[in-house]
Amino acid sequence: MIEMHDVWKTYPNGAVALQGVSIRIDKGEFVYVVGPSGAGKSTFIKLMYREERPSKGSIFVNGFNIERLKERKIPLLRRQIGVVFQDFKLLPNKTVKENVAFALEVIEASPKKIKSRVAEVLELVGLGDKANALPNELSGGQQQRVSIARALINNPSVIIADEPTGNLDPDTSWDIMRLFEEINNRGTTIVMATHNKEIVNTLKKRVLAVEGGQIVRDQKRGVYGYEN
User: Fold this and answer.
1) pLDDT exceeds 80 at position 226
2) Residue 176 falls within a domain, yes or no?
3) How far apart are CA 184 and CA 190, in angstroms?
4) Residues 31 and 48: beta-carbon distance below 8 Å
5) Number of domains the chain is built from
6) CB contact at 8 A, 32 and 162
């Protein structure tokens, strides 16, 4: 599903974010990416959906060669990847169903398909009764569920989540993690950057630990291993 071979990333200011990273993530895996602030986690995540490009090395995501991907092909890649952010990134003037439908409207799906698929994913994330609400009428946890529904709308092969529980209280964080587990159990690959030590240590998954731009630990059922 995801492969990196000797990937380096150096920013224009000379900062080296990743150095010599090589990993393979198989279909259906659930992988935590952990490490101290500034370790390179966000860069690692952004490379997967072509928000950043590698300075050296090769990256393949679901058959796409990220390094050589032409600009016009990026939307094709991103239709196969759902991305969930810490700060939700919802459109404030659109309802829940309009936020979720947006990705299908961009690819000019039929109104019938949009209506059916939006209803399906909103039920999956437990928001079937909130379709007409605006984001500011929802709790933080509900807004994150909308974000997850939006990420699911194109039935992606992989979901990449960057600190998805970072702005949520502990109880809500657990609700969101149970939702991610359900999505993973349906066959979707999940790669999640997180600082949440309790979640990582309780819901044992594969752990990739990043430090100084390198993968320093790769454990099948790992633990967090860093102090918050």
Assistant:
1) no
2) yes
3) 7
4) no
5) 1
6) no
